[in-house]
């Protein structure tokens, strides 16, 4: 390992509202067009008095055209069996105890799906409906999430099958024919079982990390971190595993700010990036640490760059590097590591990018703010 320490962040749908719409145009400073979901409000006569920009976008019906229309004409919704939804639900003439309709998939003209929920507003219990408030949401985001979850399940099932088959096979063989094997053969099989169990444990840990990242529950326990020492440990792990010390070049720039971060998660970042560089790259792996301004507010930070001299990442693939299941080659891995790395960096308030290194290989660069705990500022 070579170490070098160098010196010095639309226009509103302005179609004329019906007179009754004035009370819906602004509430506590929030305009209906500011809402991310579609909002449609009908008055006691069943005519539309509010049709916000998101509703116009989702339904492809201009707000000016929808305002004043009967609700069933402004929103000609059908259920998945082709039945007219407003005829089935009858908000104004149905049971007086109903308060609304739960969210469900309905169809707009042309067969496009939309998620719809409704609330019936009454001035008194069992009184007549004074307003029907309808919420609309597109299904694209949900479909993407469902596809992503399905892909995750399929990948996990595939990744677990192989080591579990191995563990089951070797343990069953040992239990059934223990006396037939020599001590060396038993040791070899138990080492294989241990390695496969470790692989399963790592995959489960990755899945837990993904769950926390996706739900925004990834905890960061900040304490002072010595990046230079952490990098040294990870290089030593690689050399102990058989890599030549000459393959690694570490450059630590002077005047690094004190970094407050989660040491275990910093280890995850460094371990993943170095393993990727060794597994998928060629030549010298260069790790550089330098002071750097982090974010638009000018906060001090630390920049870490990991680059190699391999073939690099194709330009067309760079936008997908930090997505789930992306693999740069067929040399193993679940394709979840870089997705987790990005989530960890962002949980620290940092950024990470990928590009082409000065010698042609892949170059990953992440920047972490100092992250000093508030009680120490």
What would you say this structure looks like, in words?
- The chain is an alpha+beta fold and about 375 residues long.
- It has helices spanning about 55-60, 65, 70-75, 85-90, 140-175, 185-215, 225-240, 265-280, 335-345; strands at about 1-5, 40, 50, 100-105, 115-120, 130-140, 225, 250, 260, 285-295, 300-305, 350-355, 360-370.
- The strands form three sheets. A six-stranded mixed β-sheet has the order 1-8-10-11-13-12. A five-stranded antiparallel β-sheet has the order 3-2-6-5-4. A two-stranded antiparallel ribbon has the order 7-9.
- A hairpin with a 5-residue loop joins strand 4 and strand 5 (about 115-120).
Number of strands: 13
Q: Write out the strand line-up for the largest beta sheet, numbering strands in chain order.
A: 1-8-10-11-13-12
Structural class: alpha+beta
Q: Percent of residues in beta strands?
A: 15-25%
- pLDDT < 50 runs, ≥5 residues: 7-25
SSE run: EEEHHHHEEEHHEHEEHEEHEE
Major sheet attributes? 6 strands, mixed
């Amino acid at each position: 390992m070579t170490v070098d320490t160098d010196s010095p962040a639309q226009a509103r749908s302005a179609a004329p509202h019906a007179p009754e719409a004035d009370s819906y145009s602004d509430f506590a400073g929030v305009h209906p067009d500011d809402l991310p979901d579609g909002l449609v409000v009908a008055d006691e006569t069943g005519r539309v008095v509010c049709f916000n920009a998101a509703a116009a976008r989702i339904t492809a019906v201009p707000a000016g055209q929808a305002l004043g229309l009967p609700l069933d004409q402004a929103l000609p919704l059908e259920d998945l069996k082709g039945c007219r939804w407003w005829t089935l639900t009858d908000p104004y003439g149905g049971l007086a105890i109903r308060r609304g309709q739960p969210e469900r998939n309905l169809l707009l003209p042309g067969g496009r799906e939309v998620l719809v929920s409704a609330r019936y507003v009454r001035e008194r219990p069992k009184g007549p409906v004074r307003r029907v408030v309808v919420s609309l949401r597109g299904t694209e985001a949900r479909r993407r999430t469902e596809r992503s979850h399905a892909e995750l399940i399929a990948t996990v099932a595939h990744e677990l099958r192989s080591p579990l088959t191995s563990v089951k096979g070797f343990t069953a063989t040992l239990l059934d024919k223990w006396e037939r094997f020599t001590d060396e053969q038993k040791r070899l099989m138990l080492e294989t079982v241990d390695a496969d169990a470790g692989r399963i444990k790592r995959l489960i840990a990755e899945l837990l990390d993904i769950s926390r990242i996706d739900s925004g529950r990834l905890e960061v326990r900040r304490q002072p971190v010595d990046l230079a020492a952490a990098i040294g440990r990870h290089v030593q792990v690689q050399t102990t595993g058989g890599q030549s010390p000459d393959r690694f070049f570490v450059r630590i720039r002077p005047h690094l700010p004190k970094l407050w971060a989660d040491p275990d998660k910093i280890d995850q970042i460094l371990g993943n990036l170095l393993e990727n560089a060794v597994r998928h790259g060629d030549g010298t792996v260069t790790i550089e640490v330098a002071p750097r301004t982090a974010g638009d507010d000018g906060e001090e930070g630390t920049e870490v760059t990991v680059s190699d001299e391999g073939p690099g990442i194709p330009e067309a693939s760079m936008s997908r590097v930090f997505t789930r299941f992306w693999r740069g080659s067929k040399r193993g891995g679940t394709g979840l590591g870089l997705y987790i790395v990005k989530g960890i960096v962002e949980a620290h308030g940092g950024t990470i990018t990928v590009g082409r290194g000065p010698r042609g290989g892949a170059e990953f660069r992440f920047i972490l703010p100092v992250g000093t705990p508030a009680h120490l500022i």
